[in-house]
Every structure is written in structure tokens, then in C-alpha cells.
Amino acid sequence: MNTPGGWGAVNIQGVAVARIARRKPSADPVPVPSEAAAANAVESWLSFNAFSRDVFAQAHPGYEDILDGALTQFRKDPQRIHQRRSLDPAVGTGVALSSAIPFVLPVVAMFLGAVTERAVTGVVDSIERATRGRIARIIRDHHGSTHDVPQAAGALGLSGEEEGIVRGVVLGWGVGRGMDPQSAGNLADAVVRTLRSYSGDAG
Amino acid sequence: MTDLANPVTPEPSAALPDGPPAVVRPGLPRISPTRAQYLLLVVVLLLAGAFAGQVAYNAFWATSWSHTMSRCLRERPAGPNITVGQLSDYLQHCTGPAEQQRALVSLTGALAVVVLGGAIMRVLPQRLLRRAGPVTTASEKWQQQAATAAGDMGITRVPLVVWGSVWLEEPFTAGRPGRVSIVLPVGVRALPPAQADALLRHELAHVAVGDVRLVWLTRGVLWALPPVLLIPLVVILIQTWRTAHENPLAAFGGAFWWEYAFRAALLITVSALVSQLVLRSREYEADARSVHGRSSAAMEALLVARPATALTWWKRVRANHPPGLERVAALSRGPLPLRISLLETAAVGVLGAMALDAVTSLAEIGLTGTPWSAEARLVGAVTAGGLLSVVWGTATWRTVIASGGTEPVPRSSLLVLGVSTALGLLVQFERTGTTGSGTLFGWYPLTTVPVAMAGAGAVSVALAGLWARRRRRPDRAGWDRVAAVCVNAILFVGALRIAEDTALALQSYDWHDALIVSGMYATTGTTTAVALSALALITLWAALSGGDRHAPFAASPGAQASRRWRTFRVTATTIAGSGTFGTAATSLVAAAAAVATRWTFLPAAAGGAASVHSIEFDWWSAAGAGGACLVVLIALRGTRGQAEALYAAPLATLLASAALWGRHFAEWKDPVKAAEHYAVGPLAQVAFLILLLGVPSAFLPARRTPRMRRARTGILLVAALSTAVVLAILRSGTRLLELS
Fold it and tell me: What phi and psi values does residue B173 have, to the nearest 5 degrees?
């Protein structure tokens, strides 16, 4: 298998994390969903919102009430993830309670950006073209099912190897942007489970 | 990051399974001593604004001011019948209006800092809330939990609980007074209920003690100061350009402006660092209040759960919070309040000294031509001494009392207090342009004020120990606060007054005469004597109700005695068995020896028994009795002896004075006035000695010798020393006499 440019070997889960962990936090801009795209296009805000909501529900069940706010904040400043400096208020507890939640939308945006070839080359190339096409079709068909696009149950699902690549890539991006490996792994699993649910596999 | 695998959202709950039952901690003081540190900082910053106002005044009105001064000097009354007092009164009235105008403009600078600071104080929290937002109101259950916790802490206006941006990591409290919000990060929802509750209570603890207001007030004033300090520069720039039509920047080529900039930068930097220091100290208090009446396990778990990253020294100095492990260590100490640290002591010393000179300078200007023109130094001493007593003195008393007098205060803190005071006098902003002349009263205060401050601190600590060791009723804890405030106010204000008197005397006399003028013949002798008497009474009361007692004359159990007889016997037993009895005996012997020596030997100076010189020898003999008592008690008991000497030495002095005054009772034209002189001068001299020996005695160990042996040794020593001292006084000729 071709090695995606800059991201490591086929066995991504172990090696890629190690390689990415040694790198500095990525400054690659987060691909922003397109305002001009069609509603059922994968690169549209509608599609992004819907996919994010499903991934969020998988990754952080019980926190759906804050997603709307998170989506608003992401839409207002998609590149916020690159601001490493956190607020240090004067009258506070002095205890940092970091959460994986703010990383969900930027990482999902990176994923969709890679799938729709709107991210930088290195990000796009982390997933093979064929896999990207299948993922895009899965998402488009799921979100566009009200437009009578036929869904071939099971035929659009990702193979185990492809799921492994997706998981490794998402995990790598998450760690590269400051998530801890466990939370990044959790998010990667959520992305895979969401794609599975879209394609109708039992998971 | 937090583990969010648990699909169940933790709900806040009033019933929290904390494990071990809650440890009920003793009541916390209503007023936090560390709040006063903010007050001191704000006062110093306002005074810096006042100095900027003064510089601006000079830019506008320097010419008219100097014309006024010249005219007053030119038109002053002359002649052989004009006394110094009349001349002084004339100059006061003539220059008064101009000086008061100068003071008013100066105060406008301080007012500008207040106004601007107040505006910034409202803007900064809103800015913080915007940066932490968008905020959304938390659910009713969180509001209810906050209300419950607020009720426990006596907070009537419950802050609103809101969620911050998803990017927010640290919970905090901010908002305008009366509209405070507790902003929580989303990560709180993943915490165990007990930790979430502990976090909420910590934030509420900040609200309960007024931290939110104080922090933003301090920051507002700190941000307001630089623009106010720039006003004189802008004024001069415009003036130079408009009047001289030359390069305005040329006006700033002189050394004054470089010094102005340097001192301003130093002041702002020191103030910012002190502000952070106080901020970190407040966290310990907030932690303690948040676990009051509860187990601290949840709070401790919260503090240690996140691994601490190694911070550089610069980041530690600028940090808003102490390291988590240090906070846990403070919590594990239980209800004992934290000792004021050496760094805090240094900050207090520096700021207190800055306030002293600045307030005195402003008062001298503003009170010119008024009936209180002579009280400028008193105003400065009361302001600075009052602040120091509250910020350092009462904080130290709180620590000593809470430990029952068992936890010693580091002696190094006394040295730090002294050195930092000197530093504050040197670097303060108001000395810009006058560095060559030292402080407001020259160079001598750089010695006298630090020694006096350290001495006052030493006496305060000794007294705190005595107070802590006395039998105290829990329902009379309020007396602790009253005693702490009174004692420290007397000590620090009095010490500053004595230090300034001594500094002024050193300018005019040699050191020997200066020491005499500063004690026996000080112009502030009356207030010093009254203050020492008040201290003596407080100390005696503490000693009489002390725990260091035994009852050699125990009543037989079951004895049928009248109630009055039983009361008398208990009181007599108490006094007889206490160390106070032995100490009082020492005073009596000292006085007796001094009086006997005075009456036995004639002074070497000329003068009969009822001459003025003879009276002065009486005063010095009485002072000698007190001094001997002081030295012997310190030598025998170290720092504990210093506390006892606070009532023993004045007692010895007054006993000797009374006997010596009484001998000439039939000769006095005004016996009451004479008695006043016999009391005031000697007591003032003893007060001076107590202050002078404060720091050395603090470094002596507190010796524990059997009470009876101590009493016997003390009596013998004091008799010998008192006799020797009075003999030396009588043989000193006219050196000690004011009117020689």
C-alpha cells in the first residue's frame, strides 16, 4: 500500500501515533465547510453539521446540549484550535479541566476536508483516493437519502483495513493538535462507528 | 484530559458521598488579614498618582508658587520682638493657600487613578467574560447547588452559574459587583460530584471574602496608573511646544525624567508582582473556606489530579495560583491559618515605607496654614502604621494565637521587615528628583525607621505569644481581634513616631543627645507614655489570665466557705501562683533600689534638692528602674521576658516616679502637672528602650527556668542593676539634662 505522504506506515495505529507525537502540533489550517456547496454535498455546512452531530453523539453521549454552542463557536472561528494559549483568569480555582470536546469539530472538519480534497496535500494524501471516494459516497448518500439517492446497503461500507486507516489518521490528527491519545482514539472510534452506521453495517 | 467514556452525565447533588465524616473546623475570622494587603497596595498606587499630580502642578503653577513663596519671605515681619513662633505662624498663613492648592492638584492625580481605575475595574471582567464566552446559563440543578453552597457560606446574593466556551479550561468568577458569575468549563461535568461541588465552593469562597471586587479594583488601579503618570509628560510636552516653540522632547533630557521613568517602572513592576503574590495567598484562604465544615478530600483530589508542569521562576512569580501540592499541604494543616511569608513581609515593608513618606509629604503641603499644620508627621505615621499593623501585625497575631503560641514566628521575618522598610524608603516614587537627600527627613530615617519597624514587630510577636498562652474562652474570640488591632496599631504608629523623632534629632544633635531627645525629652512624649501605659495594661491583663500558673494554696475540697471568701482565695492563689507575681516583685525591687540609690547619693551636677536639675535626675532614676527591669527580664527569659517587661518596666518606672514625686509633694505649686512630668518623660524613655531592644531580645532563646529560682535571680539582678544604673546617672554630670 502506498504510504500517505508524511504520515507513516500502513500499520498506522501504533507507528503513526508515535511519529505524530514526536512532531510539533500541526499548524495546517482547518478546512472550513463551504457556504456555496449544495446542501447534500459533503463539503457543505449542512453535511458537516449533521456528520459532526452524529460523531459527537458517539464520542460524547450525554453532552448533546452543548453541541449547538460548539458549532456556533466553530463557525465563528474555525482556526481557534491553533491558539494554544488558554485563558488564565485571576479569580479562579487554578485547576485546568481540559476536555476533548473542543477538538471534535476541528478534527471532523479535517477529516471531511481530506475526504473532499479541500485540505492541504499532506492531509488529503493521508487517506487513499479510493477510500476517500467511498467515505464521501457514504456520507453523501446518508445525508442525501431524502433526495431519493439509492443506498446500496453493505456495498458502500469500508473494509476493515480502510476503517483502520481512518481510525489511525483521525487519531493522529487529534494527537497532533493536542488531544491525549485515549481521547483521540475515542474520537477516531466514534468516526468509524458513525461511518458504519451510515453504511448500514452492524458495526 | 478527562475521560468522557461514561455516558451518564454527572448530576450535581446536594448529598455527596465524601467517605469519612466531615471534620468540623473552628470558625474562620470574619475579616481576612490578606485583604488588607490589597488595600495597602491600592493606597500606594493612589499616592503615586498624587505625586504625578504634584509634578503636573509644578508644570502649570511652579512660577506663581515660587512668586508666592518669595513674596511671603520678603514681607515677613521683622524686629527684635518677633518670636520664632510668630514668624512661623505668619509663614504658615501666607503660604497656606498656595500649598493647599498644590495639595489639591496632587490629590486630583490620585482621584484620576481612582476614577480611571474604577472604569477599568468594570471593563476588565466584562472583557474576560467575553473571552471566555459565549456563556450559557447552567441548568437549574447547578444554580440550586450554588445556592446551597452559598447559603453555607453566608452569601446572600448567589452568583449565576454559567458555562463558558468549549475551549475554556479553568473555572473562574468574574463580573461587576452584585452581578457576579461563576463560569465553568465543560470539563466540570465529567468530575465526580464531590469534586464538582468542591470546585463550586472554592469559587463561592472567593465571592464570600470579596476577592472578586478586590482583585479587579487592584488591577483596575494598576492599569490606570501608567496613563496618569504620563499626564505630566503630556502637559510639559504641550507647554514647551506652545510657549517655547522648540523641540518639546528636549524638555525631557534632564536626569529628573529619567529617574521619573525608572521609579515609575519600578513601582509598577513591584506592584504587579505584589498583586500576584497576594492573589496566590488568597487561594489558600479560598481553599480553607471552601472545605470549612466538610472533608477536604474532594478538594485535595481536585488539586492533585492534574500533573504539575515545571515552571520557570518567572512563571512562578507571575502565576495566579500556587502549585497544587502546596495548596494540598496547606489544607492538610487544618484550620491553622497560614503564616505571612517572608516575601509577603518584604512586600508589606516596602509598601508601608512608601506610604509613610508619601502621606507625610502630602500632609505637610496640605495642612500648611491650618491649625493642624504640626500634625503632618502624625498623619503619615497613623496611615502607614495603621496599614502595617493591620496587614502584618494582625496577620501574625492570628497565626500565633491559632497555634496557641507554640508555633514560633521566624526571626528572619523581623529582619526582612526592617530591610524592606529601608528599601521602600529608598525606591519610592515620591523621591524622584531628591535622591541625593535620601528620604523626606534626610538619610537618618533609613536607619531609625527600619530599626523601629523591626522592633515593633518583635514586641508584637512577643505579645502575641503571651496573649495566645493565656486562658481564653471560645466565646470571647472577638477579644483576640480587638487586642490584635489595638496592640499593633499602638506599636507600629508609636514606633514610627519615635523613629521620626530620632531621625530629626540626629540631624540636629550628636547621636548621644539625639537618643536622649528622642526618649525623655521627645515632643511626642505624652502620647508615647499614654500608649505604653495602654500596652502595659493589656499585657498585664493577658499575663494575669495566663495559663502559666499553679496554686500553692489550694483550698481543701468540700470546705464550707462563704462565696466571697472563696473568690478572694482563688484570686489571691491565682496571683500568687502566677509568673506575674514574680515579675511584679521584680518591678517593685527595681523601683525600690532606684529610689534608695537616688535618695542616698547626690548627683555630681550642681543644684539643690528641689532644683530643676534635681527633678531631671529623678526622672532619669525612674527611667533607670524601668530600664533595669527590662534588661533583667530579657536576660532571664529571652523573648518571653520581653513580653513581661511590657508591664513590668513601666510599673517599675511609675513606682519609682511616684516615690520620687511624693518626696517633694509639699513643695509643688502644681502637683498634678508635676506628676505628669514625673510620669511622661521616664515612660517615654522606657518606651524608647523597649523598641531599641526589641530585635536583639527576639534573638535570645526563651529560657525556661523554675519559677522560684527565676524570681530570686531576677530580684537580685534587678536590684544590683537598678542601683548601678542610677549611680551612673547621678555621676553623669549634666550630660542627661535637657536644660543644662
Answer: -125, 135
Those residues whose C-beta lies under 8 Å from the C-beta of residue A163, and which sit 6 or more positions away, are A192, A195, A196
CA B344 to CA B342: how far, in whole Å? 5
Strand pairing category for B136-137 and B172-176: unpaired
Whole-model pTM: value is 0.80
Amino acid at B204: L
Mean pLDDT, rounded, of chain B: 83
Q: What are phi and psi of A27, to 5 degrees?
A: -105, 10
**44-63 in A: which are within 8 Å (CB) of B?**
59-63
C-alpha to C-alpha distance for B243 and B254, rounded to whole angstroms: 19
In DSSP terms, A92 is beta-bridged to B172
How many CB pairs (< 8 A) connect A and B? 134
Pairing of strands B172-176, B160-163: unpaired
Three-point CA angle B99, B102, B105, nearest 5°: 150
Q: In which residue are the cell numbers 521575618 written?
A: B413
Distance in Å, alpha carbon of B370 to nearest chain A alpha carbon: 45
> Look-up: residue for cell 456563556?
B135
By CA distance, what is B284's nearest residue in A? Answer: A93
Residue in A62, A70, A95 nearest the CB of B302: A95
B578: which DSSP letter? Answer: B
Q: Do the Cβ atoms of B302 and A59 come within 8 Å?
A: no
Task: Calculate mean pLDDT across residues B708-721.
Answer: 79
Give pLDDT, residue B547. 40
- Are B681 and B619 in contact, with CB atoms under 8 Å apart? yes
Continuous segment of H or E residues that includes residue B212: helix B211-239
**Does A85 touch chain B if contact means CB atoms closer than 8 Å?**
no
SS3 B176: strand
d(CA B41, CA B45): 6
Looking at residue B154, its amino acid is G
Question: Is pLDDT above 50 for A7?
Answer: no
Query: In the structure grid, which three cell numbers stand for residue B458, read together?
Result: 518583635
**Segment B358-361 long-range contacts (CB within 8 Å, at least 24 positions apart):** B358/B44, B358/B47, B358/B48, B358/B50, B358/B51, B358/B428, B358/B429, B358/B430, B359/B47, B359/B383, B359/B384, B360/B440, B361/B430, B361/B440
Q: What is the pLDDT of residue B472?
A: 63
Residue B106: all three cell numbers together: 496632587
Please give, rounded to a whole number of angstroms, the shortest distance from the CA of B287 to a CA of chain A: 9
Is there a contact between B425 and B662 (Cβ–Cβ < 8 Å)?
no
Kind of pairing, strands B160-163 and B179-184?
A: parallel
DSSP B79: S
The beta-carbon neighbor of B165 closest among A59, A73, A95 is A73
Give the single-character DSSP code of B172: E
> Which grid coordinates belong to B297?
478530600
Q: Are the Cβ atoms of A89 and B324 closer than 8 angstroms?
A: no
Per-residue model confidence as pLDDT tens digits over B715-726: 888 888 888 888
Q: Are B251 and B234 in contact (CB under 8 A)?
A: no
Quote the Cα angle for B29-B35-B36, to 5°: 105
DSSP letter at A80? G
Q: What is the ipTM of this complex?
A: 0.82
Chain A residues closer than 8 Å to B162 by CB:
none
Could you give the CA distance from residue A124 to residue A113 in angstroms, rounded to a whole number?
7
- Which residue from A minimizes the CA distance to B309? A96
The answer to whether the Cβ–Cβ distance between A91 and B215 falls below 8 Å is: yes
Rounded Cα gap, residues B290 and B296, in angstroms: 9
Helix (H, G, I), strand (E, B) or coil at B223: helix
Regarding predicted confidence, which is higher, B267 or A84? B267
Q: CA distances (Å), B336 to each of B28, B55, B321, B412, B465, in order?
A: 10, 47, 20, 21, 15
CB B132 within 8 A of CB B164: yes
Which are the contacts of B739, defined by CB distance < 8 A and separation ≥ 6? Answer: B612, B613, B616
* Interatomic CA distance for residues B604 and B740, integer angstroms: 13
Ramachandran quadrant class, B33 (left: phi over 0; alpha: psi -120 to 50; beta: rest): alpha
